[in-house]
Sequence to fold (830 residues):
Amino acid sequence: MKRYKLLFLLIFLFSFSIYASPYKSQRTRLLKYASNKHIPKEWGDSLIKYMPQVDLVSADDSFLLSDLNAIVKAKKRVPWANKVPKGIFYRYILPYRVSQEPLNNFRSLYVDTLLAVIKDAGNMDSAILKIDDWVTIHNKYKSTSPWDQSSIVTLKRGYGRCEEMATLLIMALRTVYIPARFVYTPWWPFTNSNHAWVEVWVNGKWKYIGKLKNPNDWVVAATKRTALVAGTVWGKVTKNNEPILNSYRMFTIFNSTPNYEDTKTLSVNVTDENNVPVINAKIYIYVYNYSAFRVVASGKTDSTGHYTIRVGKTDLLLTAAKDTQFAWSHVRKNDNAITLRLGNRNIPDSSFWFYTIPPVEVKNKGRKYTPSDTIYLAQKVYMDKVNPVKSDIDISFPQKDDSIFIDILKSSHGNYKTILDFYNKTDNTKKADLVTILKSIYENKKDLVCLNSNNMRTLLNWYERNKQRISVFDDTIALPYIVSPRVYFENFGTYKDTFSHLFANLISPLGIDSTVKKVVRYVDSAIDTVPDSLKSRFGGLMNPLETHKGKIGRPIEKYILSIGILRSLIVPSRLNYMNNGLEYYKEGKWINLIPHSHVTQKYNHVKIVFHNEADGKILKLRYYYDFTINRVKDNKIVSLDLDVPDSKDTIICDLTPGKYFTIAGWRNLFGTAYIRINNFKIESDTVLDIKAGIPINELKTGNVIVRQFKLPEKAKLKDIEGKVFNSSTLRKGKNLILVLDMHNESSISVLNKIKIENWQGHIFIFTNSEIETVADIVKSKRIKCTIFKMTDKRIQDIFHVKTFPSIIAIERGKTTLWIEGFNPDILNDF
Fold:
């Protein structure tokens, strides 16, 4: 046993040395530049000690110095600086990162602006509200691409999703020396989504900023139904007032669930088939979200084969594994202790209810803070500034069809002048090529906001030299898999011009297969591998240029580098659906390259037909929303990232040989899901017939109707166009009513996510604010509807809603659906 422990220690030290050694010079250089007589040396030491590898590669020499100088400036100016404990400062003010957003110099750019915002604030409480108002003016909630944008990009776009809004607010608060941190629920158990928010340190306690403004904020109710609330801390923490989920060398994840809801201690024991405790068994805890089991927490068993965690009282899926041994269990909400016996066990074909905590009505006492009309007026002015209209755009040499270019400029928001200026200065013979490049980026609209003149110049140079070779491919292949600079969720960067010169020698005269293998072998030999176990939760994935510069990367970063080189050499390529290797395009087919072995593998064509068990009819299921295809990878359940067309009787996809299983589910009013699991094995082209749907005997009264809706007899309703409706209109035919508070993120999210484009009836939307936002969303989704704007009191008089948003379906005067709160997915199954 001692021999094995020594071997493990040597392997760990070797892995750590691989990570640390290439960056020794960068660490020394950054420490030198961070040194300043006005800046305590330990500040720089603390940051660089836990700095993620992406920052060691890409951080400018002066970056740390300017960031630390901004902290010094704020500390001298705010009256509460000396009240912040040292430990709180090092974890929640000093770090220049909040999460995985790209590196940016927000603090040094905005310190003077934000200090001016709070100049009249006599205390931290007042300053928090002033900073929150400033952030409200400069951004709104809107769903965006999965990778995080920086706070500067959020300001340029004028909007972001919850993580990006939280990052901006946290950095703004830290800039004025207010401790703030990022807290999140990885996945909600009761609906298809997740969420992140901000906590501030006030009077010695961490408080959710939304609750400071509104004691009954929607997040307060939602978190009482979740499985886990967590947060990430810069650096390794071994002692904390809150339970620690995981403590790593560079960061720590704490468990904040007990701060938000009534929890239980889940105790897990893992044994082998002889009932001997298993040490260091890997534990994963999942909830049901987007038709799959999504991980919310993980850990390992201790020396007694035991693992404990504080979680919410909702159903969970639990897996344990070690080596090739695996076990799973459905943990009911009242289960406190589970024993898992490892063996060669897969999850069998099964169907079951996965229960959630019913909606909770919150009635906290306290003053509700509402931003003044002046704040929302200032927000509108700012949004007009960063959202160009056609009259703002002066195109010096219009395209034959300039509508796509105008859409590109509109999508670049506060960056549109940079792109337009470069376009107008570009030679007329090259402008069409520039638009083609921008079209390849248009799908990932965040990247348009990141572009600068140098980015566009290098991309255009590369494209001009290679456009003849690119033109042999259809745009559906060329734009996303050759021209686009983005491969996955990595930091944005342009590298093709550099790589096309640097790696021209890797083009093989023997053809595309040989070229691909030469590129992959080069990356394997030239780039050291950092195990995923050493990754940081701060900073995103390195882009191809950063990985090449640092000569080190995680496996996925090495795949992204290989793809970046191949695209630069005009070989269409992408990550495979497991994100553990690459695919390249040859003669009309995608070929999978097996990692490490460099052996190519063709896909099998798979057709899946889902039949409703109740009546035998074919079901048109949508990937992610209604079902997913899954497999067990590294002893963890993983949902495959497949591109599957919607609304088809037959689901068609390509899979490599192996064992898989489908997960399909239906949610009721409370978010409780009826789940069906079906296993299948792929050895060749296959046709699968799978039972789906919910059996009639499982559908219970009250699953979709919270209560009956009664309209006032003689109410007159005037829409935003001035047309008058009698309340009797809502009793005729089939009608869908959405009651929204568009100052509330949950209402905006529901309107963005809900699938009502094909509703067979009339749609009425009632809102207390933000008519323009509602109109923009319904226009983008091509929803035909009637919109009404009313005061909160008028909405309550008519609908008597308990919470926003509320969704009501009425057919011939009878309520057929009424749900309240954040649950945009119930209508998808209705």
Q: What stands out?
A: Residues 523 and 562 are 6 Å apart (CA to CA). The domain at 716-829 is CATH 3.40.30.10 (Glutaredoxin).
